[in-house]
């Protein structure tokens, strides 16, 4: 059996993938929508030595393995991988047969692989985790995210909506769920590049404060606020949300922050936000969730090492229960899973269109991390291994929620 055939065996013989290898061998259907090119024996060592997608990711990030065709199609087939069912002896036998025995074992991990130290979710370690992912390049993010610089699930009001229209719709949906109005005060925790802060100030006359652990995000956001003439209403600070001194906010938005908090810290997180609201104020929590409580909260493998170090995901039920326990009355829950798949499809298209510029900006290894991460995340939302939930809660004013009898944000 030649190299390409043996590599395909490790991925899964029934996968609709074409594999080509550096020894000239080929396996799989030639008309497959995607495939792999094995450029070096190092790729084989990575795949055999690490479980599931992590080994493939290391091989791809290092350049020892190339994805041909559509990465999204390739990763759908990889989900059928049988490599985890192989015993260690089987893996070693395959590697030796494929010629990887000439490679040092274990092979060195790619330099971008992140390993954090210190107490998990301490302020110092959280700063490092956020810097790893977000303090990369604002230009790179602009190329991927588009003009909105919104790095969370968009909301598609119709199938043909553009990414920019859908991101505007997302910010406006959050504003309407929170009942924002002129003169109100909004706190946006984990505000990113300030999209929600600027939307609330510009379209609702709200005095909005955003905080982010990313210094580059804060610098970009403050400049954008000034350029849009919103400095009298909007502000973004480079600050841990736990260090916000102000209180008595009319509304709080948390869009894409909960994933970085840590399951053990969620009770304190909701209690802190509850304490920052005036009575009658609302919280809108928007975050990636797991579809059930069966899997561990901590993300593992490729995502933990390369994308979101220390990331943790819980179920929507856990979010609702913890918010309730902190004192919130939960009034609305919405799953936007399909919307995130569409958002990721648009981001993937942006990255492919600007691939050469992305490589120049952040280097080939980091660009490859992002190509894999975006395509893999799209697969996850499409196949319901992850979801996206918005949870709306209110800090009761006695027994009064100050809410409409029926949701008024649906039209």
Task: Specify the biggest β-sheet.
Answer: 7 strands, mixed
* Helix coverage percent: 40-55%
Helical stretch tally: 16
Question: Strand share of the residues?
Answer: 15-25%
Number of strands: 11
Number of domains: 2
Q: How is the secondary structure organized here?
A:
Blueprint: H1 3-11, E1 18-21, E2 26-27, E3 34-38, H2 41-49, H3 52-62, E4 65-69, H4 71-78, H5 88-97, H6 123-134, H7 138-145, H8 163-177, E5 185-189, H9 195-204, E6 207-212, H10 215-227, E7 234-238, E8 249-255, H11 266-276, E9 277-289, H12 301-307, H13 316-325, E10 329-335, H14 337-353, H15 355-362, H16 364-382, E11 387-394
Parallel strand pairs: 1-3, 5-6, 5-8, 6-7, 8-9
Antiparallel strand pairs: 1-2, 3-4, 9-11, 10-11
Brief synopsis:
This protein has helices at 3-11, 41-49, 52-62, 71-78, 88-97, 123-134, 138-145, 163-177, 195-204, 215-227, 266-276, 301-307, 316-325, 337-353, 355-362, 364-382; strands at 18-21, 26-27, 34-38, 65-69, 185-189, 207-212, 234-238, 249-255, 277-289, 329-335, 387-394. It is of the alpha/beta class and 411 residues long.
General description of the model:
It contains 16 helices and 11 strands. α10 links the parallel β6 and β7 (234-238). The protein is 43% helix and 16% strand. The chain has helices at residues 3-11, 41-49, 52-62, 71-78, 88-97, 123-134, 138-145, 163-177, 195-204, 215-227, 266-276, 301-307, 316-325, 337-353, 355-362, 364-382; strands spanning 18-21, 26-27, 34-38, 65-69, 185-189, 207-212, 234-238, 249-255, 277-289, 329-335, 387-394. Strands 7-6-5-8-9-11-10 form a 7-stranded mixed sheet, with helices on both faces. It has a 4-stranded mixed sheet with strand order 2-1-3-4. By secondary structure, the chain is of the alpha/beta class. The mean pLDDT is 90. The chain folds into 2 domains: 3-102, no CATH class; 123-394, Rossmann fold, CATH 3.40.50. This is Cyclopropane-fatty-acyl-phospholipid synthase. InterPro entries: CFA/CMAS, CMAS, SAM-dependent_MTases_sf. Belongs to the CFA/CMAS family. One of its GO terms (molecular function) is methyltransferase activity. Pfam families: CMAS (PF02353).
């Amino acid at each position: 059996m030649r190299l390409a055939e043996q590599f395909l065996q490790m991925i899964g013989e029934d996968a609709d993938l074409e594999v080509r290898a550096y020894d000239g061998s080929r396996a799989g259907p030639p008309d497959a929508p995607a495939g792999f090119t094995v450029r070096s024996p190092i790729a084989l060592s990575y795949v055999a030595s690490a479980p599931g997608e992590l080994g493939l990711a290391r091989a791809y990030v290092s350049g020892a393995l190339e994805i041909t065709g559509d990465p999204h199609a390739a990763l759908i087939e990889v989900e059928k991988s049988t490599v985890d069912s192989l015993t260690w002896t089987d893996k070693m036998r395959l590697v030796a047969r494929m010629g990887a025995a000439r490679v040092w074992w274990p092979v060195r991990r790619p330099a971008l692989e992140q390993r954090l130290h210190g107490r998990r979710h301490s302020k110092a370690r959280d700063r490092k985790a956020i810097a790893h992912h977000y303090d990369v390049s604002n230009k790179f993010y602009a190329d991927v995210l588009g003009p909105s610089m919104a790095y969370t699930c968009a909301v598609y009001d119709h199938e043909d909506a553009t990414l920019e229209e859908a991101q505007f719709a997302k910010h406006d949906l959050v504003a309407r769920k929170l009942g924002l109005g002129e003169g109100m005060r909004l706190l946006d925790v984990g505000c990113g590049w300030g999209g929600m802060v600027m939307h609330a100030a510009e379209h609702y006359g709200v005095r909005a404060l955003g905080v982010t652990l990313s210094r580059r995000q804060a610098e970009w956001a403050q400049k954008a606020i000034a350029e849009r003439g919103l400095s009298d209403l909007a502000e973004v600070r480079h600050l841990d949300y736990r260090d916000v001194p102000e209180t008595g906010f009319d509304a709080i938005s948390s869009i894409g922050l909960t994933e970085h908090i840590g399951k053990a810290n969620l009770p304190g997180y909701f209690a802190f936000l509850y304490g920052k609201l005036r009575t009658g104020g609302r919280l809108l929590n928007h975050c990636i969730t797991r579809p059930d409580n069966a899997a561990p909260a901590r993300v593992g493998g490729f995502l933990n090492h390369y994308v979101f170090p220390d990331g943790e995901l819980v179920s929507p039920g856990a979010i609702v229960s913890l918010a309730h326990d902190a004192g919130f009355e939960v009034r609305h829950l919405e799953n936007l899973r399909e919307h995130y798949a569409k958002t990721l499809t648009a981001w993937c298209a942006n990255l492919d269109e600007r691939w050469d510029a992305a490589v120049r900006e952040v280097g080939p290894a980091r660009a490859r991390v992002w190509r894999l991460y975006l395509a893999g995340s799209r697969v996850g939302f499409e196949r319901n291994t992850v979801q996206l939930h918005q949870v709306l809660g209110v800090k009761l004013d006695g027994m009064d929620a100050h809410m409409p009898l029926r949701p008024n944000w649906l039209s």
